Amino acid sequence: MATGNSGDTAVSVIIIYIRLSLEDEDVRSGVKEESNSITNQRLLIHDYIKSNPELKEAKIIEKCDDGYSGKRFDRPAFQEMIELAKRGEADCIIVKDFSRFGRDYIEMGNYLEQIFPFLGIRFISVNDHYDSASSHNQTLGLDMVFKNFVYDSYSRELSKKAHDAWVKIGVEGSFRSTYAPYGYRKSKENYHKLEINPETAPVVREIFELRLSGYNAAKIARLLNARGVPSPAQYAIEHNERKYGQNVNPREQGWNSCSITRILRNEKYAGNMVNMRTKSDGIRGKMIARDEREWIKVEDTHEAIVSKEMFQKVEAMLPKYKKPYAGRRTNVFCCAYCGKKMSRSGNKTYYSCRYGETNPNVSCYRFRVDALTLENVVLEELNSHIQRFITEDLQPHEGKKSVRLASKASERKLYQREMESIEREKTKLYEKYKDGKFSREEYLRQKRECDTKLKECKSDLLAAETETENSEGTAEEIAERESVAELIRKHSDLDKLTPELQEAFIERVDVYSADRIKITWKFARVFGE
Asked: In degrees rounded to 5, what are phi and psi of residue 89?
């Protein structure tokens, strides 16, 4: 395996790491040269490998994160790469430049100066002319530190500029989405302005008129499907828009109550533009909904399809938005024919496929199943699996052995909770540091303390898992058995298929009919496939 100071050591396995983030969206649309595109990064790295005799015979593994910010180090492919390195299944990691590896220069320095040398990983950044094998155990140096600092500062500045730009767009009332809403098209003179689409605008106007005359959303959808009026999805497919993918069957994308309701609630049809409805959730970059008071609404930015009076009358007829559910709303039942979620009727007597309810062109058209019959079938299967688990697994492990396992389980959970707490603390430290609340030295000092605690917790957790694994099987199998046992104790009443039971034990239920289903359990090792 290559080490940090061995310039002529043969390399057997190379991981090439490629990243393209949403920050590079202009590359996707072809506005800029594709200097950071996936293809360009791949070609540049492969050319570099071919030009180096010590690398060109090595096995190559590619890891690619498409659409992930460089500020984050919890990227899926990045984590897979690090796991390979930890297991000793790679000798070398190659990237196009440091910014592709990450834009947090402190965390990146930790990998390059601490983690990779410890693991014996050779690190190469092609465009930065950096190769750890020829660094002779020296640190990155002032030039590299400064370059990494520029990357990090650029990322934060880019985020601020993007926010300011979107605020400006919102105030101007410009339309900047990729696709115009159904009923409109983008103006050829001004790509950021909407104009009426003469083909689809009459359909939108009719939808509002039908709602005012007393038709509900489902009836409107059935009427349009019966007349063969293209839905938004069908229209997009017919006009070669890629929004709905290339392998979608247009016949299965007809009107439904949701597509009708989305149109009836969209204020753009009254000539108003509403922007800034979402925002980034801090350093992690996850998009969340803004409070309605933060929205930016500009009236009369484009020609209206319906009058404001009509829009307001229809809006008053629609049911009010329900208060967001505090937890995750559980629905495990799926239509086996189209794969989409099934909905429970308002009186809770049956489940139906919402997408087939209004479209006669699909195999699940008006597909309904009696709710009580379906739930009883699933409950019977669940009880059967639980009783078998109790008989075959719980009872043989009763006594001192089960007490010891329960103790070990509690010990492992304690370590896991402590590790999660430390990771959260590290994130808070970084945010405080970037906000200037304390110096770099203080940040590094506190981060080292967190890293030391984290290392100790990981070591203790590994020891606990190894001890249990040696006596009772793999850690995954033990964890599943313990989880099932704990859930059985928690849910002692198994007379009704409650949302809590569904959430606890079931991944999904594919429904063909009331007595023909396929259940995917959350605990496949215990319950079987």
From this structure: -95, 15
